[in-house]
Each structure stands twice: as structure tokens, then as C-alpha cells.
Amino acid sequence: MASLDTFEITLTGKGSHAAMPDKGNDPIVAAAELVLGLQTIVSRRLSPLDSAVVSITQFNAGEAINVIPETATLRGTVRCLQTPVREKVQRLIGEFVERLPTAFGVRGELVYNVGYPVTENHVEAATTIRRAAVSAVGEANVQWGCNPSMASEDFAFMLHACPGAYIWMGVDGEKPSAALHNPYYDFNDQVIEPGVAVWTSLVEQCLPLS
């Protein structure tokens, strides 16, 4: 699974009345251009063979409908599968924030937070949990060698501290489940029993009774 960094960009211009935009420096227009510009990091500045996702998830500015505000704020996330790519994306975001807003007479400030590392399983631990899962639910119900996910997981810190493995458990029932972080997600209670069976099998393999 991917690493996860977060960032906050504050654009400071000069507020004015909405009827007289020439009297100010509009941070909203600068922020809108910055949103578009940041999307070119992945599409134009990285190799197509490198995986990264830059997402702007919040855009906040102003309170009054007839006032161009002084500031605008963007927040978002960066997800990567490789450390060099992660470092390059961070550097490029900094360059965009420093240079692009000046064309609009606006000042950009970036706060970049390096977060979760890449989640990488240890082979021996992954093999152990796979063996336990096969024993519990059968070979046909265990997938091995799944494609990487650009989602992120704080369990990555644990895997950097000691050997282990992170697994996924499918929860689809008669129809596909909505994804996580979705208001329509509904946990399928029927997966509790096989889930417990997998963990029980793991304990029996790793801590057998003498």
C-alpha cells in the first residue's frame, strides 16, 4: 500500500469588492490555477511507470458572497509507492506553490507533513498468514499477489519496526459492498465467522499446544 503525506497551502492576496476585482489580487483564481497545475505533477512530471496520486480534497475561501477574500486554503494528500517518487512530488509541490501564485500577485505558503511510509509485507510473515487462511477458508478463497493499492495504512509503521504482514478480507455478500469511507458502506456480518477462523488458524499454527 502507498505512503501518505498531507499538505496545506495558504494563498494570500489582497481582498476587494466582487464588483472591483482590479482593486485586489484574487487568491481564489490563483488557487484554482494551482489545483489544475498540481495535477500535472503526475501526468507530466513523473514517468508513466511510477505510481503517485495527488488529490486536492479541500478548497476553502471567503465568507461573503460579494467579497473577494484575502486568503484561500487548499488541503490534500500525496500517495506514492516509492521513496524517490515521494521525494520528487514533495519538491515539485513546493515549486508550484512558490512560483505559480506570483503570476497573480499572490503569495503562496506550503505546510507539508510527511506521514505514513509505504506498507510492505515481510515475505515470511505473509506466507504464514496465507497458510493459515488457506487452512481456514480454503485455497479457492485466498488471493495471493494482489496488485498494490494507493490507499494508505498506519500499520506501515509497525511493519518498519518488526516483521509482519497486512492482509485484506473481502466483505462482499450477495451484491458488492460500497467502498470504505463511503456513506453507503454496510459491514457484512457474515464475514465475522470466516475472519475469526483465519485468526484462530494463525494462532494454532504459531502457538501450537505442546
TrEMBL record:
Q: What's the domain of life for this entry?
A: Bacteria
Q: Which Pfam families match?
A: Peptidase_M20 (PF01546)
The GO molecular function terms of this record are: N-acetyldiaminopimelate deacetylase activity
Gene3D superfamilies given for it? 3.30.70.360, Zn peptidases
| Record's keyword terms, sorted | Hydrolase
A Gene Ontology annotation in the biological process aspect, one of them, is: diaminopimelate biosynthetic process
Quick check: keyword Ligase in the entry? no
- Protein's UniProt keywords contain Hydrolase: yes
The protein's name: Peptidase M20D, amidohydrolase
